[in-house]
Amino acid sequence: MPKKKLPPAPAARKPRADAQRNRERILEVAKQVFTRDGAAASLDDIARQARIGPGTLYRHFPTRDALIEAVYRSEVEKLAAAQQRFAATMPPLEALRAWMLLFIDHVASKALIIPAMDTVAGGSMRLIEGSRSLIHTAFVASVQRAIASGDLRSDADPNDLARALIGVFHTTAIPGWEPSARRLVDILIAGSRLTPKLRSRV
Q1: Does 81 score more than 70 pLDDT?
Q2: Which residue in 15, 80, 102, 201 has its CB near the most CB atoms, within 10 A?
Q3: Summary mean pLDDT of the chain
Q4: 168 lies in which domain range?
Q5: What is the 8-class DSSP label of residue 62?
Q6: In a domain, 12, yes or no
Q7: Closest by Cα among 159, 156, 145 to 189
Q8: Percent share of the chain, pLDDT over 70
Q9: CB–CB of 66/59 below 8 Å?
Q10: 3-state class of 193 per DSSP?
């Protein structure tokens, strides 16, 4: 007898709209509370400020580590998504500059939440390393788009720019680091631009 075909596996159900809204609200509130209270942040306080019960919080994030990881991952995903949004709405060089300045904001936020991130298994570096490729991919895409448009020199190396930009994370303990990092964005772009003399040879 011919074998009966098995019915197709049911498609994965998307989260209900209210559940998704709860999750996003939890992450936003948790970011604020972890930034303010660091390692001393209370999950009950997060649930109360998010206007949900503790049970709802734990259904989304069974452990404290899971919540902290989700907060950081969400911020990285927003940063990566911004690259695509900027690319769709801005000229290449303007989009690159806007994303690099947004990266500075991301570093500033990360510096504030590091005490909470350090409490998870493996510490903050495990979370940072785990998300590095997502940030790197978004940055390289921005640089390559500016090169393709002729705004940046063809020999500009996205990895060189990435290393210089990521290096600002190691200066966050120095007073005034953020304005300095924003100036660095313009210095890096200016140094990589295709000058009129070189443009005339292309």
Answers
A1: yes
A2: 80
A3: 87
A4: 71-201
A5: S
A6: no
A7: 156
A8: 88
A9: no
A10: strand
Please report, in angstroms and rounded to a whole number, the separation of the first and last CA atoms in the chain. 70
- Is 6 part of a structural domain of the chain? no
Q: What percent of the chain has pLDDT over 90?
A: 61
Classify burial at 192, counting beta carbons within 10 Å of its beta carbon; exposed 0-12, middle 13-18, buried 19 or more.
buried
| Separation CA 154–CA 17 (nearest Å) | 45
3-state secondary structure of 66: helix
Q: Is 80 exceeded by the pLDDT of residue 198?
A: no
**Cβ–Cβ under 8 Å, residues 169 and 181:** no
SS (H, E, C) 128-183: HHHHHHHHHHHHHHHHHHHHHCCCECCCCCHHHHHHHHHHHHHHCCCCCHHHHHHH
Tens digits of residue pLDDT in 104-135:
999 999 888 999 999 999 999 999 888 889 99
Decide: 138 and 162 in contact? Cβ < 8 Å.
no
CB 70 within 8 A of CB 54: no
Structure confidence by residue, pLDDT tens digits, 136-181: 999 999 999 999 999 999 998 988 888 888 787 778 878 889 999 9
Number of domain units in the chain: 2
Contact 110, 72 (CB under 8 A): yes
196 and 172, same structural domain? Answer: yes
The contacts of residue 158 (CB under 8 Å, 6+ apart) are 139, 140, 143, 144
For the entire predicted model, the pTM comes to: 0.81
For the chain, the farthest-separated pair of C-alpha atoms sits apart, in whole angstroms, at 78
